[in-house]
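ok so I'm stuck.
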Amino acid sequence: MIKDSEFDIVAIKGKVVERKDTSYLCLRCGICCSKYQALLTRVEEQQIADGLTIGRDEFLDRYTDHRWGGTESFLLRHQDGACVFLSHVENSPMTYCSINPFKPSDCREYSPDPCKPECQEGLRIQGTPTM
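replied:
not stuck anymore, here's the structure
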């Protein structure tokens, strides 16, 4: 049995059997932003357009995935393998969201977790041992 006090996880033969603490700080590795596309509502699409001080049509044209057929919801476009709004911290493996103050609920509500494959990948990138 292994107890990792940093994540407050108990594991037996590499399998998590208990998780006491559900809070986990984001590593800002950007892996989730490369694996998933955020879904936007019409209200969120307008809030982001307003935050960027551009019109709705320009926002839809430049920043949403045109393959998505929705008219009441939209997907943020990926560029260079990740969300178009993901930016990299210079000389660092860390990233940040360039629309953080008005990012969509999909992104705000995402819960990082050391048990999620994308967070495991982020831990490896940052050189932190994983289970």
